[in-house]
Records
---
Amino acid sequence: MAFVLPPLPYAFAALEPHIDAQTMEIHHDRHHATYVNNLNGAIEKHPELGSRTVEELLSDLQASLFRDALDERERRTLRDPSGYDEMIEYLRDAAGFVAAPWCGRRQCEARVKDDSSATIRCLPLSEPPLESGACVCCGRPAASVAFWAQAY
Ligand SMILES: [Zn+2]
């Protein structure tokens, strides 16, 4: 089943003087038509998707992109480093995030920043506790898990 460009339900000039007829015609007959044609071209390559609605296709696409982003974030996250040196080396390489226990003291955050230029990017509320309960920087009991990374 091919998708069809629905006709504009009003005249191209209906929105003048705010949007001129030529702009409406270009957007509907060229841009919108190209989107529909490209969708039909993609469906031809994947006929199993032809019975899906646009809403279902976009929902599946968004879910897939979100899963891929989570996978990539996990692939680039060093969790519970063996020690301060491993954390700093990973951060200096700008390889991604480090999830490490943190005591909550500003001095520890400042030390990591001085040694790697990385800062805490997130203190997640729902992060499960890491195996190590000691601050990766000072060894005091951790107050939370912190995600550290280079800023762009
Ligand atoms: Zn600390």
---
Amino acid sequence: MSNKIKRSYIREILDATDEDTISFAGGLPDKEFFPLNQLSKASKKVFKNADCLQYSKSQGIEGLREKIASIYTNKLGFKTSKEEILITTGSQQAFDIILKSLDSKQVIVESPSYIGALGAFKILGKEIKDFKKLSELEKLINSSNILYAISDYQNPSTNVYSNKKRKNIASILNKSNSTLIEDGAYCFLNFKNKVKTPISKLYENSYHLGSFSKIVAPGLRLGWVRAKAENIDNLLAAKESLDLHTSTFNQMLVEQYLKDNDLFEHITKINDAYSKKMEYMAKCFKKYIPSFKFKKPEGGMFIYGSFDVDSMLLAKEALKENIAFVPAEVFYLDEKSNEARFNFTNATYKEIKMGIKKLSSILDNYTKKINS
Ligand SMILES: Cc1ncc(COP(=O)(O)O)c(C=O)c1O
């Protein structure tokens, strides 16, 4: 049997693209909104203290953990203390750490699901089971497995769980005594700046993941886990075996940034801009590719819809012509799909128009080819 590990299809597309490619593939935020000046000012302050380049605590620096805990308490209505926060190197690292700290051999995911989580579960040899309806989840879940759920602006489907669905999932968890990993990577990216209470507030045996990637900048690689204090202890050994701790400098930088700036004013700006860009991409689809069926998202960074041709083959044709998007097959465990995910935050308005227009002629040529 080959030991070769399959890479993420999206990371491979990112490697295959160059400056001539119009990419709707990655989940990249709009770099126009990286708070460069504010971070630059914060970095000058941080550099006055040599501790910024020193080793630091595995759980993360206290000041930043306090700030994250207060976001939970004050913005998400979920009372949290700094003892319940562990800083991770991107929220991606949290999958590895959490799974290594638990005995569970099986993870349940909603279908389709985040490719980075599926990759992390596979590499750790976990058996993955998927569900579409809560009735299916109810049958699969038990006290020795784990549910992975993205409650807000799911990647890729863009779905958001209603408050009722959150309660239903919490009640299923309570009955089964399972473990919840709730991914909140996009939880603040609602176009109207509304947030919903995490399921984790309703179910104690949970790990809620958060990230500065989509609300400050992903290159800082700063994420976190919110969990019961006793579970945090179990995570530390796994974290230490990977990187001892997350970059001290980056943690101090973001702590300083949060002291000097109003993060939620910044998030409001991002949400306004993303809402407009999403509307523009939606308009381009309606004009140039009316056969692409989608529901406009209420937040997040993607438009997700369905072609009436094979989206995997179309994506391959498009990539030859320097247009990148993600065919949804890669988000499913074992299912053909004509769905596709388009990121609208990274490309400029001009690129969005050019890219969708060009994709329309690629689709026409492809349709003629398969019908001839
Ligand atoms: C749903 C979801 N979770 C987690 C991540 C990982 O983000 P990061 O490691 O940058 O915090 C991503 C990145 O795109 C994501 O879409």
